[in-house]
Structures are given as C-alpha cells and as structure tokens.
Model the fold of this input.
Amino acid sequence: MYLEHFGLKAKPFGLNPDPAYLFLSSQHSLAYHMLEYGLLSQAGITVISGEVGAGKTTLLRHLLNQHNEDDLVVGLLADTEKDTAKKLMSWIAMAFDLEHTGNKIDLKKRFQKFLIDNYAQGKTTVLIVDEAQNLGKKALEQLRLLNNINSGPDELLKIILVGQPELLDKLQSPKLMQLAQRVTVEFHLGSLKAEDALGYIRHRLKVAGAEKEIFDKAAVYGIYYLAGGVPRLINTLCDYALVYGFANGDDQIGIDAVFEVARGRKIGGVNRQKGDAEDMEIARSYVQRATGLDIAEPN
Done:
C-alpha cells in the first residue's frame, strides 16, 4: 500500500518473526552469544526469557540459520499447555518426525535410540520448547528426567526453553530446584533502549530498501516511548504511521503522525495509562526532553 510512496521494496515492520530483519541490539547480541554457547558447549539446558514481542523467536530462528543443518537435528515443541505432561513424550517424538504411538516407556526408549544414533553420526540433537511458561510443573520435571539421558562428558540432547517471565517464576519453585540446577545458560531479554530503538527502526527500513530517513528524530523517540521499547509494538506503531503518512501524502513521518496513530490504539500494550490528551502530552514532554527539540502540543 505505502511501499512505492516511500521507496520501499518490502514491508519493513511485519509482525511475524523474520531473521532477515534481525537487529542485534546490545542485549540481543549478548542473548545470541549465550544461545550459541548453549548450543555448542556442554550445556544441557538453556533458558531464554522475555516479554511478549521482545524478539525471542526471531533470535532463535537466526541462530538455527547460522548453523549447518547436517550437524543439527532440531525439534520444535510450540503447542505447550499445562496438561502436556500426559503426552509430552508423544509430542516430542512428533517434533522430531518419529513414530509417536505407544506407551511412555516405549516412546522414551525409541527417543533414546534416536539420540544415540544422531550422536554416533556427529549430530547435535536440540529440543526447543517455545512458550515454555505454559508448561505445568510435571511436564517441566519430565524434561529434567529426559535430560538424564545425557551421561559422561558429551551431551546427547540439548534443551532450549523459551518463554515469558512466568517461566522464571516457575523455575524458582522449590519443586523444580533440580531442573533449575541443570540450567547452564540463562538470559532475559528486556525492552530496547532509546538508542537501540533508533537503530532498530533504521535497520529494518534499510533492509526493506529505504534510501532516505523516513521517520524524523522526534517520531522515532515518540514511537520508542509509546511502545515501551518492545520491538513488536514498535513494528505496529511504525506500520500504522506509514499508512497514515501515505494517506496524507507525507514524504516523512513526523511526531504528529505518531500521536495520531497512537490515539487509535486502545489495546495491545501501548504506553497509555490516562486519557488521550494527557497521554499524548506526557509523550510530547518525553520527546522534547530526549531530543532537545521544540515539540508542539498534540492537536
């Protein structure tokens, strides 16, 4: 819709995780190196946590894209829920395209043979559990027992747990102390800092083909403040602002466009706690302090 108007070749602010647009902020870079360490070292369990929209899944996909598929055997368990314990081994088998019928003992034996065969071929087997905060304590304990398959100096199975902050709360439970003690690598992804948000927006626009500054400085700081530094919310506000700018025939997105699209966001986590006028005034004051620019009061 707005691509040609702004000289873009692709949509820069999609909501689906896309490693092609990955921006390695200071903390995302550190999280990536922690993930890589967990993948390549003798680390049995890695935990990556972060708020909704922090970029956890994009980071994971980038990690897997950087490694030779011939050396990695990856199973992704994404549909997690509290009663997963009863069918966990079956779901894990399906994640690796294995036969998933039979009782738990048969399933575990089959899976253990699968791990040993992979190891004999020089392959690393990785189980990634996304949205792991949804798992009940029984299912998490089963993962610890599954980790017992590892013996000696080499790891047959690496487990990566990815989830929202509630996952950390569960892992601090006394009932899961043994599992927590198996966690070798842990990292929490927070919100972007203002400077990183600026780099994030510019990076995504550049990847999409932008050859000029589409968002001015005040607009970027306004988006950062209203999105609370959360990448997914930044994407949402940027995308809406581009549509607004296109509809208005603007060549560049300014703070007024940001205020206008933010007024229409009643849901989704945009940084609004009061009413339209007061929220926009607070945002204006922040942008003015952050940029040193004289920002007119929102209409």
About this structure: The CA atoms of residues 191 and 208 lie 23 Å apart.
